[in-house]
Amino acid sequence: MCVCVCVFEDCPFRFENCKKQHGVDDNKKSSVILVAVVLCPQSCPLRRDREQVGVAAVLRTRICTSRPETTSVLRRDAAMRGSKRCRRDRPVCMTNCPTLIVMVGLPARGKTYISKKLTRYLNWIGVPTKEFNVGQYRRECLKIYKNFEFFRPDNEEGLKIRRQCALSALNDVRQYLCMEGGQVAVFDATNTTRERRDTITRFAEQNGFKVFFVESVCEDPDVIAENIVQVKLGSPDYIDCNTEEAVADFMKRIKCYENSYQPLDEGLDRELSYIKIMDVGRRYLVNRVLDHIQSRIVYYLMNIHITPRSIYLCRHGESDLNVRGRIGGDSGLTSRGKEYAKSLGHFIQEQNIKDLKVWTSQMKRTIQTAEALAVPYEQWKALNEIDAGVCEEMMYEEIQEHFPLEFALRDQDKYRYRYPKGESYEDLVQRLEPVIMELERQENVLVICHQAVMRCLLAYFLDKSAEELPYLKCPLHTVLKLTPVAYGCKVESIFLNVEAVNTHRDKPENVDISRPTEEALLTVPAHQ
Amino acid sequence: SMSSEQNELTQTPLLKIWVPWVHSTLSRRRGSSVPQFTNSPTVIVMVGLPARGKTYISKKLARYLNWIGVNTAVFNLGQYRREAVQTYKNYEFFRPDNEEAMKIRRNCASNALTDIGAYFTKEQGQVAVFDATNTTRERRGLILSFAKEKGYKVFFVESVCDDPDIIEQNIMQVKLSSPDYENCDKEEALEDFLKRIECYKMTYVPLDEEKDRHLSYIKIFNVGSRYLVNRVQDHIQSRIVYYLMNIHVTPRSIYLSRHGESDLNLLGRIGGDSGLSTRGQMYASALAAFVQSQSIRDLKVWTSHMKRTIQTAEALGVPYEQWKALNEIDAGMCEEMTYEEIQDHHPEEFALRDQDKYRYRYPKGESYEDMVHRLEPVIMELERQENVLVICHQAVMRCLLAYFLDKSADELPYLRCPLHTVLKLTPVAYGCKVESIFLNVQAVNTHREKPPNVDINRKTEDALQTVPEHV
Hints:
The complex is a heterodimer. Chain A is α/β, with parallel strands linked by helices.
């Protein structure tokens, strides 16, 4: 029985049989909306043709409600937000099942840039994430890249190798998500054909992973050219080529993919969860966000940009409590600290930064520092130093004396350790997340903050692990200038030539709770 | 000179914000506990046929923005029309060929825009939501010109929905009870409203991907299964998009409750991290029984990191999630003190708190305003979720309740959230139904009303007048 409700006027099956069976009123057609052609029966001569072209219809229908299959298709479409079903008839995923992010797009569309950045962000907020770059697998398999001909769609051997690489990468994904405690895997490849994406979707279903596609669509030749210059020319593939040769070859490579590229389609792919990023973030299409992590990913992707800019991180000038070796508190600047503030003012002037935003915490010492710049600044409570709870304003010697157990526990796991009635580095990352999000949105920013805070922010930009984070060196009176470049961040460290006390305490050798006092205090920096 | 000014910082007594001395050139800066992100005012323009959820979205968005501290007001064109026309006869008013009605409707739009201008310039408004169909390119052009002339940003929110079930639901829930249909029976009202929609359909031009590619907008398809987002300009638009992408209309209930009565509660002491009293334990068991009896589908349970909420959750015998963001307000130097002791040791602080309880920050502690900001991710996740039971604390619960019930910053710190009482919130129409369920286990009262005398020189008896009884 035909149930074709083809959008195309010339489809011989369109409406005819339906009208006969269910007596559809012609007047009601205005409230009837048509379904994409894939519902046409196999016998519809136009079905295959249309499918390949891709149907842009985004509608659904109310007729044929008495026909069970159609009804269930329609009901499936009805917004079932919060439903635990990933797709109709698919195994139910609990909200904690791992997520597979699948990148989609032609070469030089920023897929690897997005993969790496997203991975860095998710790891920083505590979601174990890893990226799997199929190009890497191909390089390991092939060893030597000759030229674009490898990517020709009629290169049978090339296709075989590429397919193997994809499967090998998926295998490693499974290993990571199922056995290594991974929560999110980012599958970084072109994934430009529907066939390839179906393979991945099936793989994910079999393993109980949720799938979220991230497609980058860009036709701006300037952006593409810039991409190629920034990251492709330095690729191992082009190590022995000059710039012209490399660019010419890469453009031919892109051509190889173009003909078989099937972008995510509003109609055909309406059951999938995805975000389509168009023109480097000018426009987004977001479909079926299923859960919290996908919602955070979408929010993040919608806030990042690639406009060149620099982020300046520094601490407040040296404070009274700093020189006395005391942690926390809310003291003012020493005279050296004030000198630093002045130098910072000059430094900023010299750098001639366009539209610089200045942010401070709400503690006296950062605000005093900013005041010397004589420019407007914004105070963020979220940038306040880590709350040391009962240890506020103590010296390390005093902490060792009054709370030796706490002191040892902190050395055992400085990232997760929470001061009694205070915070941990892990807590800090949570409260700094809105700051990071806003830093992503902004352009040139100077953040005047504190030691622990600066370590957290730096770890985000430089992709440092939770183990390294609490021991990153952030000395007083030193500005770190971070400039995004290629897939990472360039760091320039500028000491502003005003002496200050050292406040960095390295992890001592002995972290045992029964260690003697000298060993606990071995790495405490000198102070008054 | 600059160096002497560097010394001159003073901490504002109420907000505890460090600001330069008055004579400094930069003293004009607002001392605020939260970064100010909205510079130019923003007009959010709703777009869509009737019964597409525009007013629902407008009100919800305004409620959220006001809660996070962005002054927002909704300007509903239907309201203006009702004031101009007084009596609604039938759908014929909306026919596109009704010249006289068109004139009235255009006037109303004009008046609304004027009021928006006044809201921005005279009432410190930061965001105005223009809630109307705005279905023609001409009308939208009018708004864009107005905004351009005044230097306002414009962000469109279009709701596209073709699911007849949803539309009918909308009509049943909110249209039939509209003043327009006061004297009609349901059938008549429904029929008239459907004809009204047809009137708009004839001239409806949705936002176009090509023609409107320079505009900033979000298009919401079918109550959120799909979104198209174009040219987000700034922080506030980004937050709005994030919020709209997280809300849903699936029916559900949110249960708010405090921990069971704690040992420190009994002693009249604030803050701390004590365990449950005997009665508190009884409450926890009663709560477990209550939750069982409600037969709630897929209930999620959230607690803070503090002992008393966790002890309460433990009695439920179901998995629960701990949120540090749900911890009670940090009373800083006043932690674990009684009100009498605070009055004794910090009488000025005690008075300042009574003067502006929302913005007042405890020394080395927090304010209600700070709490709203740390609770924002909790609210966002509550919006995403369905049935949730939140076991938290007095100040925290006041903040959450204020969000759901659209309470102002002045009312928020005095909302009544007694111990051993569950508040069941169920979204209905444009708001929230509240059921208060006392679980029949006695507990001490911890609610302190604002006393009449808030002067810093007041007498001790005046300060302690409203302190609830304790051991």
